[in-house]
């Protein structure tokens, strides 16, 4: 039986718990294809059987079926007789039926019994009372009955009642009518409109050519239709009859309706009866109910279980068929469960209730159902939120909308925010489509992500263009509660950059799983995401094995796998390879920012299941199985069991094993809904093993389906074709809802969202109580009085709630008494910004709902990504976001108090609203100069100043207005012209005469569109002093308000009520104006013939005092004492005792409770002790709520000081403290550090007094003047690691932040965070606040000097910054102890940071200046007594000395042992002797004069060290400086030791101008066609051959040489013997070169073993970067480049930019030039190092180092770590610290660089470098760069620090302390040799006993046995019998017996022999002992054979076998057959 519900509205007398429901009969199965399939019917029966549900039965009120009603009719017509006087008289009642047309009566229903009316257009009836009045007047209840037989082609209005007889108003029809046709009966009830036919009954009834009986019962709003005595339908939604017919009762027509000219019933009508009441079913003779069944989809075992708030629909089926199915529903306990008119039961609270269904026809017929309601806890899963968009023909509908489920029912949904959007995009396309909602359980954050596309109202480019060429970014919003949303951000999906804040977009990417290429990547659309809790562990290998534990924090634990649709080409497996088609891609992210983003690859390749549209993937998971559903047009679902399901395409696209890949489960999902579906979104039903999936029906719609989202259901995802269309009558979702996502909620979340959902239309005109404040009250005083909450009416019948209110009181001027209306915004979900507004070309304000403009400056639809607004700042400026649905509340604020009198200090007040010749205001008169011109101003009129209109201003009495004033305030509004404006708004001078440069006396204001400057001059000496000027640069062509406050030497500049600049160094005003008090001009300055302001000036005021910020109305930061207090998570010092002047009282609990005093004093654990946990409570005086936090107190390890370098350039050589200093030096404005241990008494500078960190290069100094540090400081991050923060040169509102790398000493990930737009950040510090569990940034406002703070959501570049609040300004400095800090430590930019002992140790050892602290004890040497002198020397010669250093590192040296001490060792006398030695160190000196770019190397083929360099053939001390002598040859030195190279002879081996040796005829003045310049040659052995790698000039030498334009490889052509004979030094051994493509010069080579083979690399410097390429390898192969050049480094650091060759004595600054060159690659220990040179080739030249693990991929940029500071530069060398062994040359050096490295004889690193004398010898145009001879080659040792980095800065004394240079070894001479008795090492049987063959019972005898011993000295001796024992022999049994002989002195030494015991036998028979043995014994201590044994001597056993003997050879296992010897 089919069950359908039709509601009947509750009548006025019905109780709240009583509802009526009409049930259709079983025959009406065609009503709906979506009827719910119900289970467990509940049957009410009338017999004695036990019912499923108890029912009450009675028959007392059941009427028998009858044809006669008990009520009297008001009209009755049987049509059996003709009418009288044109009317049929009523058989009953006072009525008549007036004939219209011609009567036509025919045989009726029964031909033998009466007639019927043959109605049609020629015959119909008007029915009235007998007097002609309206029959139905005043009736609400009527019953109309008749018999009818409609014509086959006719049938229309049998009954028609209307207010008048006039034609129906088609747009607002009003009537009640019955349309009766052969197959249908339709009842229409309309009142002023159709209202979607909600009151209509339209049912298929009757058959052709057949009579039917119709009963229509109308009662109030309800109508019931019966046909042939069976209930057909009812409708409860109509208007009552009196309302429809009006006060007159209207007209009643039978057979005609008043549509048009009339619509007529054609057919037979009989037995028309009308009752003035609503007859019951029994009255009408309808069958009475006999039973009721209750059923429902959730009814089980006769009961219904619900959770609180959940609903279930019940059905009541009444039998028999045709009985009135209407029932009333009632709950006996509405407090537990309610039931509505449709039978929908809703759980209210935990408990039980009984639901009763009672027949309306017979109230005694009932059925009952027990309902149990269970409690829903706050954390229980309950309800859902859906995010979606709406598609219609208005572009602004493409936004983010939210719906919420009705309770926990995912089949019924309410719109949130009244169906209005929640979120909107004002960026890019401004469209938002396909939104999805995801939840991160780690951060407890929801994310809404969406497609950036607008289809409606767009550029109409079409899907093909959009999909292939539009935005690859996704829109993202985040929320913690789905009520409040953060500003939209964007996620770039098309990027290969991992974890990068600002990634580079790339439309060609590589699949991380398959390695295949994805190219031509188009728009990203339809994103979804699935949270994977262990993503980073699984992603590498699919296994949960902790493989992410060493990853950075943002790459551990869980992540979203986000997947989206694209159009692209994919080289991997897919259905359309090589074509640009649709795929679904995947990536991973934690928070949908690029900082956590990693591109993955192809998730769903273009699939054969839907080649056309492989898009719109949604995911479900059940246990370990994952399901994905994909497609548009055709939707298919696959499944896999892989834990790393996102990587499952690596096993092939179409798997059959779910353990390997994706297996098809179902295709063509949802196809019965219509022609096409897409946008699937699946989710699990809360608490059930059931799933739902929405699919977007976008094609033609099948019957019973809908456009947009339809719902599918599945009970078992692993069944065949699990998805089917939901069968539910009451499925409800707002029309046009399309393509979104669903997320499950908890009950608490559900209730919170419902409590935040209120519509503005339901909460209009909200008003709060009026408040009164005193004059001068602060904003906070007003808001404190205004209500904090507002009660609002919630949407969808959820009652009311109190919501927070945010008040805007900015319009209240508390300085002026009066009444003000303020507005508050109520905190609802509708308060989110969901629209944007813009201004068109006409200046009109428009919104996104206005007409669209696609181009031009005012376009609101200029949205294609290449031309639209694609960043937040630009978008928000051009398209301001706002909320159209926010609920507001107003209140009246009354400011009390009297208006103050006119300010006596107001000297001038010009409003310019009127005036001509003069303008008066205050005590001033402005006299017009020229012609006054006024124009529309900011408010009223303004002065339009120019050279034709300016003012002279005096006091009204003619005196100087500023007479005697040192303090003044100048205030005005201004709009300068962009051109022809010199800018002088204000000019006060000592007199009116023309100013003279260098002798100025004035205060003037230059105001332009580009900025504003206040000049103050009072000079007489011809030297202009601008130190007192104030300026602010910012382009602004609009109106601005300017305030200038001058007080003594201080001038402050305010723009738009914000302090923007301050100067405290100016001249006083009275001194400038002089004794005559000067002149004052507005609009003109007295320069030349006059310089003028051009623009609009308004509201010009001058006060005779310096106004305060409050008086100026300057916005001051708010005060929040609790926010201004920060409690560090790790405490390393005292806690604050006050905050903003309020006393803070501290209390503590926990382990560290006693360490914290009430005043905040903290006693730290001692150095090395463990940290102590403590729970702190801070009580701030006057603040109600205490602040609590859990922290830990660290031990006292010491302090690290941070500071910058103050530049002092007073020294004649360029600077006092720094030879590299220049103005506002970026290098100097870097992080310098010093350390002071906990027990230290002074500071120790670290890192050679060099900086450890600089801001990365960010453009030129002039373009980016603030790209440098100010006031750097350390901070602790949330995880406890150290980070660095600094201001931007103490000049902006931003900070720089660096993360610690985890080693406690180095830092990375530089980014800028703007923390304020109303302040200048100086002295910043960051605290991770343990109380709020978030970051707080504190700083000193550089303008006001006040402290400020703000909260930071995180430390990313896109961090959300809280409101700027007041804070304490923390004084800079390091405390009382300053000793040890350098004199140049930046004053006011120095801070000490306390650290624990472990932190101190890590930091200190990383940066401490290395110093040899000791030498490890040497192991002694031992020689034998009588050893030779050579033996003694050999014994000590291998001993090395190991030095220890203060960072924990060590270094081992060879030692030169003292010859006299060695000779003194007397080896003839045993004893110990001391031998002293001197540690061998590399000679620290100049090794080559006028040789740059040195290369030092060791030649293993001849055992020599070599040194070469770019050869300048004029000595550095030569007074000449001639470019023609430069770099024209290659010189080479060699020596057996590195130290020997210093004085070795140099040989010129190649000199092109002398021609090519042996080929002079062909190359008379070149080397094989190559010539000078020759630069940076290096020697390398590659592929078994030596090569010179050098930069040469192609062609013959010119006079001054030519630029190096190629790197060439010059081969060594001699043989190996020639190398040993010194062949490297012979020119003729170097052959014809080969060009090495890649770079012109400075190329180096490196080689290492890879996979068991040698692999070489070429390292090229190019365009200020380094590129690495592999070399071609193989015996005899020329090692050219093999493959691509990979970019491994690019200039990015300040020290890599020089100043373009100023000489050391030159104080001028050149332009910035980036240089990275001269790389050298070297392997040592665990690392490969690259040393390279940076900056210009002058004093700025320096050396830096980068390194990679020795087994790393050297061509991968990420393998390399680069030091953040130079390893060696002029600041190390200019003092002459190096060159300890240099006696003949100036030791002071500059520009050390272009190094090469080699291992010395001890395996330590030595470097050769070039440097120039300081101060430099030469000057002139060629000096200081490449073309003087001042670059000399020096050599020194290099250390490897404990952290693995190279340290080049050690002096000779640092490397080995003088006290440790002499070491001592103890030589021990042994005692003379003494005789030693040899010992026995083994025994053997030399001779066996005489007898070895016995018979049983004989006595064994050892006679004849001889045992021999082997001695330790190699000798052999025979043992006595007493030295050994012979083992027992069992002579009682037959067999071969082994007899063991054991040495008595050592029972471990044994040997053995064999005897044979035989049975007694007769002579001559086998076994008689007649053997052939020779009697010889065995050897080697093994058993031997005796004489006559019958065995061969090998020890074989002999067995008798027939006529033969089988011999088994024991030793060799050979088998021999012996013939038996006959007797």
Describe the overall structure.
- The chain is mostly beta strands.
- It is built from 15 helices and 137 strands.
- The strands form 31 sheets. Strands 4, 7, 8, 10, 15, 16, 17 and 21 form an 8-stranded antiparallel β-sheet that branches.
- Strand 100 and strand 101 form a beta hairpin.
- It is globular and about 165 Å long.
- The termini are far apart.
- The N terminus and C terminus are likely disordered.
Question: How would you briefly describe this protein structure?
Answer:
The protein is mainly β and about 2000 residues long. The protein contains 15 helices and 137 strands.
CA radius of gyration: 52 Å
- Give the number of DSSP strands: 137
Shape: globular
Number of alpha- plus pi-helical segments: 15
Question: Percent range for helical residues?
Answer: under 10%
- How far the N terminus sits from the C terminus, by CA atoms, comes to 119 Å
Average pLDDT number: 87
Category from helices, strands and their pairing: mainly beta
Q: Which oligomeric form is depicted?
A: single chain
pLDDT < 50 runs, ≥5 residues? 1-69, 862-867, 1964-2023
Share of β-strand residues: 35-45%
Q: Main beta sheet: strand number and arrangement? A: 8 strands, antiparallel
What descriptive keywords fit this protein?
2023 residues, mainly beta, eight-stranded antiparallel sheet, 15 helices, 4% helix, disordered N terminus, disordered C terminus
């Amino acid at each position: 039986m089919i069950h359908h519900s039709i509601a009947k509205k509750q009548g006025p007398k019905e109780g709240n718990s009583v509802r009526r429901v009409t049930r259709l009969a079983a025959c009406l199965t065609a009503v709906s294809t979506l009827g719910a399939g119900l289970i467990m019917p509940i049957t009410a029966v009338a017999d004695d059987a036990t019912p499923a549900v108890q029912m009450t039965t009675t028959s007392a009120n059941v009427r028998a079926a009858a044809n006669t009603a008990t009520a009297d009719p008001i009209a009755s017509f049987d049509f059996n007789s003709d009418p009288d006087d044109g009317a049929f008289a009523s058989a009953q009642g006072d009525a008549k039926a007036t004939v219209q047309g011609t009567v036509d009566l025919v045989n009726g229903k029964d031909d033998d019994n009466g007639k019927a009316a043959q109605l049609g257009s020629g015959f119909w009836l008007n029915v009235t009372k007998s007097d002609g009045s309206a029959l139905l007047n005043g009736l609400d209840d009527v019953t109309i009955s008749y018999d009818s037989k409609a014509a086959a082609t006719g049938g229309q209005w049998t009954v028609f009642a209307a207010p008048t007889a006039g034609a129906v108003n088609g747009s607002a029809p009003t009537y009640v009518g019955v349309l009766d046709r052969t197959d249908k009966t339709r009842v229409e009830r309309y009142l002023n409109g159709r209202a979607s036919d909600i009151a209509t009954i339209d049912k298929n009834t009757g058959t052709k050519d057949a009579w039917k009986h119709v009963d229509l019962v109308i009662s109030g709003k309800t109508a019931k239709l019966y046909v042939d005595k069976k209930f057909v339908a009812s409708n409860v939604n109509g208007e009552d009859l009196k309302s429809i017919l009006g006060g007159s009762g209207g007209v009643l027509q039978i057979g005609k309706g008043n549509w048009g000219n009339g619509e007529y019933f054609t057919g037979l009508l009989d037995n028309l009866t009308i009752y003035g009441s609503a007859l019951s079913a029994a009255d009408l003779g309808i069958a009475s109910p006999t039973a009721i069944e209750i059923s429902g989809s959730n009814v089980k075992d006769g009961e219904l279980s619900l959770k609180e708030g959940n609903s279930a629909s019940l059905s009541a089926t009444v039998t028999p068929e045709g009985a009135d199915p209407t029932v009333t529903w009632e709950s006996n306990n509405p407090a537990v469960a309610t039931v509505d008119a449709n039978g929908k039961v809703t759980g209210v609270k935990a408990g039980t209730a009984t639901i009763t269904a009672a027949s309306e026809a017979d109230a005694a017929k009932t059925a009952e159902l027990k309902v149990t309601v269970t409690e829903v806890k706050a954390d229980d899963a309950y309800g859902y939120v859906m995010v979606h968009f709406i598609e219609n023909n208005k572009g602004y509908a493409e936004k983010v909308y939210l719906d919420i489920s009705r309770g926990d029912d995912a089949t019924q949904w309410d719109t949130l925010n009244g169906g209005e959007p929640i979120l909107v995009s004002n960026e890019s396309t401004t469209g938002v489509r396909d939104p999805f909602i995801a939840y991160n359980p780690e951060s407890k954050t929801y994310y809404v992500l969406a497609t950036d596309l607008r289809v409606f109202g767009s550029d109409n480019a079409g899907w093909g263009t959009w999909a292939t060429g539009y935005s690859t970014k996704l829109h993202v919003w985040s929320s913690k509660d789905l009520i409040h949303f953060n500003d939209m951000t964007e996620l770039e999906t098309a990027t290969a950059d991992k974890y990068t804040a600002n990634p580079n977009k790339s439309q060609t990417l590589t699949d991380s799983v398959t390695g295949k290429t994805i190219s031509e990547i188009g728009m990203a659309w339809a994103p979804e995401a699935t949270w994977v809790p262990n993503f980073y562990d699984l992603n590498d290998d699919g296994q949960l094995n902790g493989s992410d534990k060493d990853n950075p924090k943002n790459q551990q634990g869980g992540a979203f796998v986000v997947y989206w649709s694209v159009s692209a080409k994919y080289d991997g497996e897919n259905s359309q390879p090589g074509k640009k088609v649709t795929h679904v891609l995947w990536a991973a992210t934690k928070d949908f920012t690029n900082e956590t983003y990693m591109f993955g690859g192809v998730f769903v390749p273009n699939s054969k299941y839907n080649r056309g549209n492989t898009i719109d993937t949604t995911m479900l998971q059940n246990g370990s199985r994952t399901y994905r559903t994909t497609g548009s047009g055709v939707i298919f679902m696959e499944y896999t069991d892989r834990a790393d399901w996102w990587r499952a395409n690596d096993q092939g696209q179409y798997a059959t094993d779910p353990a390997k890949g994706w297996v098809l489960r179902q295709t063509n999902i949802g196809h019965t809904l219509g022609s096409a579906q897409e946008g699937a979104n699946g989710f699990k039903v809360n608490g059930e093993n059931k799933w739902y999936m929405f699919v977007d029906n976008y094609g033609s719609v099948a019957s019973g389906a809908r456009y947009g989202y339809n719902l599918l259901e599945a009970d078992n995802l692993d069944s065949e074709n699990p998805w089917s269309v939901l069968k539910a009558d009451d499925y409800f979702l707002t029309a046009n809802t399309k393509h979104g996502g669903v997320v499950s909620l908890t009950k608490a979340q559900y209730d919170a969202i419902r409590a935040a959902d209120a519509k503005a239309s339901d909460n209009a005109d909200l008003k709060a109580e009026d408040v009164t404040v005193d004059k001068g009250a602060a904003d906070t005083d007003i808001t404190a009085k205004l209500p904090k909450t507002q009660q609002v009416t919630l949407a969808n019948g959820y009652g009311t709630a109190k919501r927070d209110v945010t008040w805007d009181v900015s319009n209240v001027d508390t300085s002026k008494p009066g009444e003000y209306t303020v507005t508050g915004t109520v905190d609802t979900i509708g308060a989110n910004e969901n629209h944007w507004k813009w201004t068109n070309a006409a200046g009109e304000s428009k919104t996104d709902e206005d007409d669209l403009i696609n181009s031009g400056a005012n376009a609101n639809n200029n949205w294609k990504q290449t031309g639209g607004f694609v960043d937040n700042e630009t978008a928000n400026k051009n398209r301001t976001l706002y909320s159209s649905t926010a609920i507001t509340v107003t209140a009246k604020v009354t400011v009390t108090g009297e208006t103050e009198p006119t300010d006596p200090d107001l000297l001038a007040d010009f409003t310019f609203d009127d005036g001509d010749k003069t303008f008066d205001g205050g005590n001033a008169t402005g006299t017009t100069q020229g012609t006054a011109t006024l124009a529309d101003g900011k408010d009223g009129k303004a002065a339009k100043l120019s050279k034709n209109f300016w003012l002279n201003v005096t006091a009204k009495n003619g005196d100087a207005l500023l007479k005697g004033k040192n303090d003044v305030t100048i205030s005005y509004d201004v709009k300068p012209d962009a051109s022809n404006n010199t800018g002088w708004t204000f000019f006060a001078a000592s007199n009116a005469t023309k100013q003279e440069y260098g002798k100025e006396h004035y205060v003037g204001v230059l105001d332009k569109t580009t900025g504003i400057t206040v000049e103050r001059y009072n000079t007489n000496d011809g030297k202009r002093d601008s130190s007192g000027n104030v300026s602010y640069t910012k382009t602004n062509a609009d109106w601005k308000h300017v305030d200038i406050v001058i007080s003594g030497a201080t001038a402050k500049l305010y723009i738009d009520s914000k302090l923007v600049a301050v100067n405290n160094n100016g001249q006083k005003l009275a001194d400038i104006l002089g004794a005559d008090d000067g002149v004052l001009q507005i609009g003109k300055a007295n320069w030349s013939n006059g310089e003028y302001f051009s623009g609009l000036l308004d509201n010009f005021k001058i006060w005779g005092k310096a106004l305060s910020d409050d008086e100026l109305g300057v916005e001051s930061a708010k005060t929040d004492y609790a926010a201004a207090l920060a409690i560090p998570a790790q405490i390393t010092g005292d806690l604050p005792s006050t905050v903003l002047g309020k006393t803070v009282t501290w209390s503590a609990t926990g382990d560290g409770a006693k360490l914290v005093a009430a005043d905040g004093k903290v006693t730290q654990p001692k150095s090395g002790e463990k940290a102590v946990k403590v729970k702190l409570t801070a009580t701030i005086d006057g603040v109600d709520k205490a602040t609590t936090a859990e922290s830990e107190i660290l031990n006292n390890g010491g302090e690290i000081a941070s500071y910058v370098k103050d530049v002092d350039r007073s020294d004649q050589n360029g600077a006092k403290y720094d030879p590299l200093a220049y103005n506002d030096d970026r290098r100097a404005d870097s992080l310098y550090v010093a350390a002071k241990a906990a027990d230290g008494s002074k500071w120790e500078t670290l890192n050679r007094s060099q900086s450890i960190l600089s801001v990365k290069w960010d453009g030129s100094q002039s373009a980016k003047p603030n790209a440098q540090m100010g006031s750097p400081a350390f901070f602790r991050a949330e995880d406890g690691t150290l980070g660095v923060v600094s201001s931007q040169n103490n000049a902006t509102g931003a900070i720089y932040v660096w993360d610690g790398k985890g080693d406690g000493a180095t830092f990375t990930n530089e980014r800028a965070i703007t923390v304020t737009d109303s302040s200048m950040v100086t002295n910043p510090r960051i605290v991770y606040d343990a109380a709020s569990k978030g970051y707080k940034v504190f700083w000193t406002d550089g303008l006001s000097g006040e402290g400020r703070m703000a909260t930071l959501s995180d430390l990313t570049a896109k961090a959300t910054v809280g409101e700027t609040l007041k804070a304490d300004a923390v004084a800079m400095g390091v405390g009382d102890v300053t000793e040890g800090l350098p004199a140049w430590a930046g004053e006011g930019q120095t801070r000490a940071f306390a650290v624990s002992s472990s932190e101190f140790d890590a930091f200190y050892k990383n940066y401490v200046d290395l110093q040899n602290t000791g030498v490890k004890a040497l192991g002694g040497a031992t020689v034998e007594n009588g050893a030779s002198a050579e033996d003694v020397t050999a014994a000590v010669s291998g001993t090395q000395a190991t030095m220890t250093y203060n960072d924990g590192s060590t270094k081992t040296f060879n030692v030169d042992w003292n010859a006299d001490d060695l000779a003194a060792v007397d080896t003839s006398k045993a004893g110990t002797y001391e031998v002293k030695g001197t540690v061998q160190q590399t000679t620290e000196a100049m090794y080559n004069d006028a040789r740059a770019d040195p290369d030092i190397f060791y030649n293993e083929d001849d055992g020599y060290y070599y040194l070469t360099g770019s050869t300048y053939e004029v000595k550095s001390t030569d007074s000449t400086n001639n470019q023609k002598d430069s770099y024209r040859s290659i010189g080479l030195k060699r020596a057996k030791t590195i130290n020997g190279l210093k004085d070795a002879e140099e040989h010129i081996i190649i000199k092109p101008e002398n021609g090519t040796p042996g080929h002079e005829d062909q190359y008379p003045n070149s080397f094989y066609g190559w010539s000078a310049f020759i630069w940076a040659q290096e020697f390398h052995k590659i592929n078994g051959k030596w090569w010179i790698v050098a930069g040469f000039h192609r062609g013959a030498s010119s006079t001054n040489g030519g630029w190096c334009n190629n790197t060439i490889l010059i081969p060594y052509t001699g043989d190996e013997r020639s190398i040993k004979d010194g062949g490297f030094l012979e020119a003729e051994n170097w052959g014809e070169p080969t060009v090495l493509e890649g770079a012109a010069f400075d190329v180096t080579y490196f080689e290492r073993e890879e996979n068991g083979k040698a692999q070489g690399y070429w390292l090229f410097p190019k365009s200020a970067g380094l590129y690495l390429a592999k070399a071609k390898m193989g015996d005899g192969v020329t090692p050219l480049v093999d493959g691509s050049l990979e970019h491994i480094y690019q200039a990015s650091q300040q020290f890599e930019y020089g100043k373009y060759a100023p000489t050391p004595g030159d104080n001028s600054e050149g332009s910035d030039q980036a240089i990275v060159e001269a790389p050298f690659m070297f392997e040592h220990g665990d690392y490969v190092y690259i040393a390279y040179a940076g900056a210009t080739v002058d004093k700025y030249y320096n050396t830096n180092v980068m390194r990679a693990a020795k087994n790393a991929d050297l061509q991968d940029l990420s393998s390399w770590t680069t030091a953040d500071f130079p390893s060696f530069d002029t600041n190390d060398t200019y003092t002459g610290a190096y060159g300890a062994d240099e006696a003949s040359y100036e030791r002071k050096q500059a520009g050390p660089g272009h190094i090469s490295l080699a291992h010395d004889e001890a395996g330590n690193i030595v470097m050769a470098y070039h440097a120039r004398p300081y101060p430099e010898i030469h000057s002139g145009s060629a000096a200081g760069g490449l073309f003087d001879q001042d670059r000399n080659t020096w050599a020194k040792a290099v250390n490897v620090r404990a952290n693995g980095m190279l340290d080049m800065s050690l002096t000779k004394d640092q490397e080995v302390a003088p006290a440790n240079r002499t070491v001592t070894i103890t030589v021990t001479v042994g005692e003379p040799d003494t005789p030693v008795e040899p010992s026995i090492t083994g025994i053997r049987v030399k001779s066996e006993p005489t007898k070895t063959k016995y018979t049983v019972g004989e006595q064994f005898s050892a006679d004849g046995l001889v045992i021999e011993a082997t001695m330790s000295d190699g000798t052999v001796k025979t043992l006595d019998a007493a030295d050994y024992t012979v083992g027992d022999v069992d002579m009682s049994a037959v067999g071969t017996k082994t007899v063991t002989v054991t040495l008595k002195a050592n029972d471990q030494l044994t040997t053995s022999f064999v005897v044979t015991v035989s049975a007694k036998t007769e002579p001559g028979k086998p076994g008689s002992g007649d053997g052939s043995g020779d009697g010889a014994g065995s050897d080697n201590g093994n058993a031997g054979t005796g004489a006559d044994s019958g065995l061969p001597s090998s020890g074989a056993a002999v067995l008798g076998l027939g006529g033969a003997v089988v011999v088994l050879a024991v030793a060799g296992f050979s088998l021999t057959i012996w013939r038996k010897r006959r007797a």
